[in-house]
Amino acid sequence: MRKSFVSMLAVLFLIIPLLAACGGQTATQPTAVPPTATEATAPEPPADSLRIALVTDLGKVNDGTFNEFAHKGAEQAAQEFGLEYRFIETQAQADYEANIQTFVDEGFDVIITVGFLIADATQAAAAAHPEIVFIGVDQFYVPGSVTDNLVGLQFREDQAGFLAGALAAMVSESGTIGIVAGQEIPPVKKFRHGFDNGARYVRPDINLLGVYLPTFIDPALGASTAEQMISDDADVIFGAGGPTGTGAIKAAAERGAYVIGVDQDEFVTTFANGASPGADRILSSAIKRVDVAVYNEVKAVVDGTFEGNGIALFDAAGDGVGLADFHMAADSVTPAMQTKLDEIFASLADGSLNTGVDPASGDLLTDQIPESNPFTP
Q1: pLDDT, tens only, 221-233
Q2: Is the dihedral of CA 236, 241, 246, 251 positive or negative?
Q3: Signal peptide location in the record (predicted)?
């Protein structure tokens, strides 16, 4: 669902370079030898159809990250609307501009790019080619500051965090849970405050531990922080801080605590589809439904309702955020817990439940924190 937060969102422009680090996608340095991009095509569509293309962040379209979900959304749209679809799998950051230019030169109508690291190249290409629609996944553009053919896809992290907090509080046996967060920037604040409020919503007496750490790229610091929380009796740890948060949940899971991932399904990525130690301890992940967002934006282009020059904000109402599958930990989530989570999601979606968190700045809205609705096992 798209909403406008023009005045509140403008402040993010100054801190947005940190956004990419709050999720599971790591800012990998370019390789020493210039590699070639991997390009693929879909079956031939009707000759008069729109042509859409995807340029991934570093990685592949089956790597379990935003790359894969953006690909799934684009592929679904292509199949449903009879569009030509091709993608390039980026091998190095130095290739971003060239990969976009490949599709510009080949006359594609819509170009989707993935991740914050490619945002500058996307914005420049959009400004140079107003005839092409550009869709930037997890990219922020101050509304009114970019061209009408460019939109950045953003998400309600506070709602995803609220669900994660409710899950953690219901599963916890010790009555203490914790969040290892990255730097104190809006998306991370939304995850943390949403997590805390969601936990108290279902369990008012829950003991909450939490900390913002000064970096997104220190797994060892995340691990030691999680271990300290476990020493303080926490038995569920939520990691929301890029590789720092990943380090936290890996260490916690290996010590037998339950964990919750962030942004994408970390059972698939961090725990290698169940192959890594501790995979049976990841309850779920607070995810951003990039596949839904990409599909909806391509559909808007097809329908003639596309709106650029800013962001498209996806929330529970549009199935833009939620919880990943419980995978190997499914037996730890009882049917009653699942029912409660379903009720919470439905209430977030219809607007009857507020997270108590500012959806732009991530600040805690003390006068809007919802009244507790305790879970009864």
Answers
A1: 999 999 999 999 9
A2: negative
A3: 1-20
